Amino acid sequence: MNLAFLVPGPLDQITGGYLYDRQVVDGLRARGRQVTLIELAGRYPDADDAARTAASAALAGLPSGSLAVIDGLALPAFAACLPSEAQRLRLIGFIHHTLSLETGLSPAEVDRYATLEATLLPLLRGAICPGEHTARALIAAGLPADHVAVAKPGTARPRSAAMRSTQGPLQLLAVGTVTPRKGHLLLIEALAKLRDLDWQLHCIGSLNRDPAAAAAVARAIRAQHLDDRVTLLGEQPAAALAAAYRGADLFVLPSYHEGYGMVFAEALAHGLPVIATTGGAIPDTVPAAAALLTPPGDSATLSEALRRVLSDDSLRARLAAGAMQAATQLPDWDEAVDTWAAALDRVAA
Prior knowledge:
Layout: E1 3-8, H1 16-30, E2 35-40, H2 49-60, E3 67-71, H3 82-85, E4 90-94, H4 107-120, E5 126-129, H5 132-140, E6 148-150, E7 170-175, H6 184-191, E8 199-204, H7 211-223, E9 230-234, H8 238-247, E10 250-252, H9 262-269, E11 274-277, H10 282-285, E12 291-294, H11 299-311, H12 313-327, H13 333-348
Parallel strand pairs: 1-2, 1-3, 3-4, 4-5, 5-6, 7-8, 7-10, 8-9, 10-11, 11-12
């Protein structure tokens, strides 16, 4: 049977969620399943008229009984059409994280997304998500527990060894779209207290998805006179990203919330010590043996953790060994797609 896979905008966007979507679509096709990709026009997740029109047309064009997967980022666009279409279609949500937990929303926006999710999620036949943390949120929003499946994303194994230097500044790496949820402003604030240590930070991730957030981070870097230490590189091709992981001494990203945190798994696969937070699913993805985890939003504790790891070679070595051990437990993409396909079959039955 053909599967319709609905995503908000082009599938080739460079975020963890879109990467997971691409791997699933390509992996299912490689396994002989028919997948029709539908790239929805409009703005997401704050759906505009174009998004709502595209969502309605996409479902209306499917024959009754069709199986369709909707990426959770697009879900608000289906608010008007989902109640009726869910009666004739088998609709599955692919929920990377719940939208109401996005950082930087006003109380009214949090309430609006929470109400939408509580209304729309129970209309789905089921949902697939990347971890237990998001699964619990979906169940709390009204989906029956036996209609929710967990399928962790895969992690690509490095093709070449690390090329870290024993001389010069320690190289810090942050990978993630520059949005309030990823905590870049908090990171700049924490690093500003560590001018006495020798370090450099490279941030890889889109500066265009949230221009206001990116501008705020750039202003903070200038205000703290860290222009010579912090570089915002924007999105980078896969080869450049892989080289950045290989050249880093430490991975740091103080996200306020993650539904899984694919970049943390990538850091583990490269044997990097991790400094992160306890936000969302991060403690499920990053074990204590590989990381120092701080409370979300706590700049002082984050700064202290950074100082510890930057100042202690033996601690970095222990955390790196913990990362390498943790990486052996991460599924590769073949395993992940197999798990995802089995999850789809179960929740769609």
